[in-house]
Specification:
about 200 residues, Tetracycline Repressor, domain 2, about 0% strand, mainly alpha
Length: about 200
């Protein structure tokens, strides 16, 4: 009985997140009606309030899901292309910036997310990315590949650079023109951490 109830609650939550994701991507957060959103999946406002507290809580769950997918895709791209830890770290950063060209990511994570939920660096999904970056930098420091700097400081600045580059691309009137500039600048900034081999 308890297991079935938990399963039903998980199904309801998943339905609401899927409906929220569609609505927020198509209409944006402000234009999304809670009644329309819940009716689309045969649920009530009460189900939304019970699971997420309010529309803002639902947006937080949707942002977490989409942002997590962005990070997963970036990591998969790094694995696919191969290379050492440093090359993979750069590939992940660039892939995260490139995700800003995806309309769903633009609207939900990079435009509405910060406007409604506040500073992205405080989001749970961003904190997971930070932990992964710190782990990678610690490995690189252990092999002497990067300069002796604070791992946390370097990770926060690298992640912040990728995030802010993505925010810039998403908000730009000409993202196609801005994207290569953002990637080039991010790569140069990040590479400043590397220990250069003597000529």
């Amino acid at each position: 009985m308890a297991a079935r109830r938990a399963e039903m609650m998980a199904e309801t939550r998943a339905k609401l997140i899927a409906a929220g994701r569609r609505a927020f991507a198509e209409k944006g957060y402000a234009a999304t009606s809670m009644d329309d959103l819940t009716a689309a999946v045969g649920l009530t406002r009460g189900a939304l309030y019970h699971n997420f507290g309010d529309k803002r809580g639902l947006l937080a769950a949707v942002v977490d899901q989409v942002d997590e997918e962005m990070a997963t895709r970036a990591a998969a791209e790094a694995e696919r292309r191969g290379g050492d830890d440093w090359e993979k770290l750069l590939i992940e950063g660039v892939a995260y910036i490139e995700a800003a060209m995806t309309p769903e990511v633009q609207r939900i994570v990079l435009l509405d997310g910060p406007a409604v939920l506040g500073d992205p660096s405080n989001w749970p999904s961003q904190n997971k990315c930070l932990a992964a970056t710190m782990d990678c930098l610690a490995r690189l420091a252990g092999t002497g590949r990067i300069k002796p700097v604070s791992i946390e400081a370097a990770a926060r600045l690298l992640n912040g650079a990728a995030l802010n580059a993505a925010l810039w691309v998403a908000a730009s009137e000409s993202p196609d023109a801005v994207l290569p500039e953002a990637i080039e600048a991010f790569t140069h900034l990040a590479s400043g951490l590397l220990v250069r081999e003597p000529a």
